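[INFO] parsing input record for GmrSD restriction endonucleases N-terminal domain-containing protein
[DEBUG] input buffer:
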Amino acid sequence: MAKYSVHQQPVDTLLSWIKSGEIAIPEIQRPFVWKPKKVRDLIDSLYQGYPVGYIITWRNPDVKLKNGELSAGKKVLIDGQQRITALTAAIVGQRVLNKNYKEISIRIAFNPLSERFEVLNKAYEKSPEWINNINPIVNDEISITKAIRKYLELNPEANEDLVEDRIENLKRIKNKQVGIIELDSTLDIDTVTEIFIRINQKGVVLSNADFVMSKIASDGHYGGNKLRKLVDYFCRLIVDKDFHKHILDNDKDFVSTDYYKALSWMAQGHDDLYVPNYMDVLRVAFTNRFSRGKFSDLVALLSGRNFELRTYESEIAEHSYKKLSDGLLDVVNKNYYQRFLMIVKSAGFISNKLIASKNALNFSYALYLKLRNEGMGENETQFYVKKWLVMSLLIGRYSGSSESTIDEDIKQINEKGIQEYLTQMERTHLGDGFWDFGIISDLESTSVNNNAYNVYLAAQCNAQSVAFLSKSMKISSLIEQRGDLHHIFPKKYLSDNGFILRQYNQVANYVYTEQATNIKVGKMPPNVYLDLVKKEIDNQEIKISTIDSYEILKENLVANDIPQELMNYTHENFKDFLVERRRMMAFKIRRYYESL
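[DEBUG] output buffer:
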């Protein structure tokens, strides 16, 4: 079976297909990234008869309508949008969005005498040798006879035959061929992705979420194009509040919809703890409402796939778009979104620096929405969401290729219920072997982007622990203020005594402390600087530390999971110290998890 067909079509035919909807162009409100000079080069290549690359389309499957008839699937453009946008801008005169989301025109000027194309500027506009805009000629808005006559009036000394020949050649741009690779409707997403990567040599990586976005963006029948905007605009507003003005000024149709009302609060909302991109938003909505994890399933369902009969039916497509709409409205709901963030913060994850896995957050948000939609009480929902988030981070549940894991987890929760499945996960992954050996091994790392270490910091924030050698400064405050991590055994001291980076930069040697304290400690060994702290307590001075009693000093070491013996330690004790501190950190993480 042929996986695809390759054929050539005139530019004119290609543009007519787009106009008629035979090729569905995703309605993506994103900037046109090509520079105008690249548009010029494309037009010049067509004029010269050079190849301009291929566009890739993927035909949707034929769908069975309610009356039993078959509706032929449209071709969805999956690669070549910038090229087609360039053609419609230069030839049809369609305006494009620039990087500031302003609509602009790209006008290509042509000099018949030199056969050069340039992006129109004032110099070319004033020169009679240049046709200011090729669009009216190529697009049949002006007859070729009139165009030639007008040019010769402005350039009476020009060779009439040469001008006539070259303007006619300009007109023939619409007849030049563009390569089209049409992928078969029976191909699955993974095969389409593989073909795309092999054809596309620019190193562009397609994700299955890109196919979902193209699928919904090219749909006008079930409102998919509006769903696409809901996703795009929400993600953009999270990071760019000024973008709200663009929506109000340039998309009044969308502003009149309930989708806009659902997301407009984000124009004033602010939080950088969870900043989902379009893939994350789709992931949460799909996992929650469909109880599935594979985007290939979502594309199939939106196409109307009946998995049992292996047919495509319009009723399934309509139902799937409705479910996706409900799921996306859940995701952008102000109350749900903010309550979820409150749950995450209350577990001690006060900064996005403490959450290395975006998919752990995605799944936890989907779980929150699912349990809430099922009518579970708020307190019980919070309990399970916190537990699941921390458990999944500790065991690296969604690291690497996560789709299959997400798919398995949501289906198991759907089948067994969250209580039974969480218990099963804990027995499988969080037994005594994990707490006594696994987590301690995970802490033997120099990476601060380490799940075990980040959960340890969340446990400290959750416990409102104070910073090392500080009487009242909270670790949470230092993390929020982007405070620096410092070494309990100063790295210069250890380096001078023969230790290497992967030894002194282990996370078990890190601690949050105030910068002034760190500077005063300098490169002193622990037994020396802690002896000075004790003398300050005796003399009621505040130099290195703000701690003013031996009892508070001991409590401070306990709060930071540091052995009391540190007061006597030199570099000779460093390796033993690391072993003991890892054990103490692991114990804190376990107590923290069990207390959630």
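[INFO] The radius of gyration is 32 Å.
[INFO] shutting down worker
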